[in-house]
Amino acid sequence: MCGIVGYLGNRDCTSVLMDGLEKLEYRGYDSAGIAVFEGREIKTVKTRGKLSAMREKLEREGKPSGHCGIGHTRWATHGEPSDINSHPHSNGRVTIVHNGIIENYAELKEFLTEQGYTFLSQTDSEVVACLLDYYYAERNPLHAITETLKELRGSYALGMIFKDFPDRVYAARRGSPLIVGMGSGEGFIASDIPAFLKYTKEYVLLDDNEIVRLDNDGTRFFDVHGKPVTKDVQTAEWDVEQAQKCGFPHYMLKEIHEQPDVVQKTLDSLVKDGVPDLTGIGLTDDMLRGFQRVYITACGTAMYAGIVAKYAIEKLARVPVAVEIASEFRYMDPIVGEGDLVIVVSQSGETADTKAALELAKSRGAKTLAVVNVKYSAIARLADICINTLAGLEIAVASTKAYSVQIVSLYLLAFRFAYARGIISENELKRLTAQLEKTPETIRSVIEHSDECQFAASQLINTETLFFIGRGFDYALSLEGSLKLKEISYIHSEAYAAGELKHGTISLIEQNIPVITIATQRHVLEKTISNMEEVKARGAYIIALCRKGTTFADGTVDLKLELDFGELDDMLVPLPTVCALQLIAYYSSVLRGNDPDKPRNLAKSVTTE
Ligand code: F6R
Q1: Can you name the residues that pair with 72 across neighbouring β-strands?
Q2: Cβ–ligand 1 contact at 351 (below 6 Å)
Q3: Of the candidates 41, 140, 142, 29, the residue with the CA atom closest to the CA atom of residue 87
Q4: Strand partners, 570
Q5: Which domains are delineated in the chain?
């Protein structure tokens, strides 16, 4: 979603802003812009399209030269992507950039129109600039901001500059991320740390309803009433390298290759003396024994990680687990309360629906556990208990390594759950953990055979539609494989439980329609093979992902990808198998000439409903 940057310091502001916006590109956007003080004048350059279009425009129109300014990448919500709707927006004496949605913008617009303001854009954001100007009667920016914030409903992160103060940047947030970079003699605001990581690792997290002011005397923080507040400065654990491609053609490929390491790191953080130890995060065996029911709620890939977890927790711990899409959960009046464990899963920790689902669960008295990759995110801070997955910075829009560490964490939870409830012995707990410890190796071995995945992708080059099928854990993986493929290759794809196809969808199977079958679960292998035969008989082109050594009757399979899992338990093979699916998606995208890192219409961090 939208990205915000702001800078005050001695460097060339335009370069810092453009650099920062580039680092936020991963969030997804369709237009961009900057506003920089040139002396006492604010020069704004903005355009529809990518940052390359911005750069061309800056070359054509001249780069603003100054030391103070704000910038933005916009992911359109209100009003089409256009030059006019791009941020920054100015009205009167105030220029702003905004991430989020102003829910009461229509009524504010009506009020401001009555006051004589006119609007240029179709955006909800422009009303914020007008309202700030309206409350700027006393030429006191802080007063204008606190009065304006009282009127806004919805979510926002705002970057603001006032014409009379060419050496100040203000920012405020509620519901959308905003981080303040604390350089020496310079300050930054940004939607995410990579935007300023090159200049400083020191940062402050702005909380909801807080305001920050960067000026030449330093950086100050205020509450919503304008009273000064003291904030802790933290140090980012990431380094600049994590925000670079390091020789890979795309971030997505780099992130796929990072999986053995990040899975290992996540295991190391949660395993002690050969068993999962969750006491460090505040989850005791006593608590685990007490839960009667588990909900897992999340969006997209994180929700599909939840489906793998459901299979694992129910199989091992014998507790009922319901997986709900967060945008449904929050409005379905779920039967949830005391005695329930609600697990939310999120890479970014900022997904609006997941956050709302978490808030709802908390308000109803359930214990909440967040499995989150960004430890300073809103979800990480809101949940009662938090597992911080250690995927590091994930930049490609399509989630890969974050999914793997999510399922590693959730497997460990499933093991401990089962042990705490007396369903598995300590020996079995150790055996399962040791099995999971083997996954970095098996993931590595699958990634080493990426040429086979590339070949499989080449078979899909002219495909318009395809299916993924599987049973049990293979079904859970089919959902993720299908999502990954469609989001970056733009091939229409659907995932089905293999046994379900014949209840309607099989009517879509015709000559040469690819059916990617995941057939790793040995206890249902024969059943899956029957389902493969059913689609083969109707002309499907079958690509089978299976354990090394799996045999099929002649003519059943068109392309076999044998994956070497060693002696890994069937329950754990989703970890290496998903890497093959990610690679098939990646190569399908590249072979079709797409940019896998920035698929059309998508945003990395979805902070609106
Ligand atoms: C797909 C993908 C999305 C996210 C979803 C949730 O590759 O990345 O489906 O998984 O938007 O995002 P987080 O995990 O940040 O809550």
Answers
A1: 4, 33
A2: yes
A3: 29
A4: none
A5: 3-242 (3.60.20.10), 245-334+385-437 (3.40.50.10490), 440-597 (3.40.50.10490)
Atom 3 of ligand 1 has which residue's CA nearest to it?
A: 300
Å from CA of 602 to ligand 1 middle? 10
pLDDT tens figures, 74-110: 887 888 888 888 899 998 799 999 998 899 999 999 9
Ligand 1 centroid to residue 605 C-alpha, Å: 7
Q: Using a 6 Å cutoff on CB, does residue 398 contact ligand 1? A: yes
Q: Which of 348, 350, 355, 404 to mutate to test the pocket of ligand 1 (most atoms within 8 A of CB)?
A: 348
Read off the DSSP letter of residue 548. Answer: T
| Residues involved in catalysis | 2, 604
| Residue of 176, 399, 489 to mutate, ligand 1, most atoms within 8 A of C-beta | 399
CA 366 to each of CA 294, 335, 340, 458: distance values in angstroms, whole numbers, following the listed order: 10, 10, 5, 48
Cis omega (within 30 of 0) on the bond before 88? yes
pLDDT at residue number 104: 92
- DSSP bridge partners of 544: 517, 560
* SS3 state at 367: strand
486: which residues sit within 8 A by CB, 6+ positions away?
A: 492, 493
- Class of residue 502 by CB neighbours under 10 A (exposed 0-12, middle 13-18, buried 19+): middle
Report the length, in residues, of the chain. 609
Q: Which pair of structure tokens corresponds to residue 472?
A: 């049990």
Which residue is listed with tokens 């100015």?
A: 90
Q: Report the separation in Å between the CA atom of 347 and the middle of ligand 1, taken as the mean of its atom positions.
A: 7
From CA 189, how far away is CA 174, in angstroms rounded?
A: 15
pLDDT in tens, 180-194: 999 999 999 999 999
Q: Would you state the torsion angle of the CA atoms of residues 407, 413, 418, 422, taken in this order, to the nearest 10 degrees?
A: 170
pLDDT tens digits, 345-390:
999 999 999 999 999 999 999 999 999 999 889 999 999 999 999 9
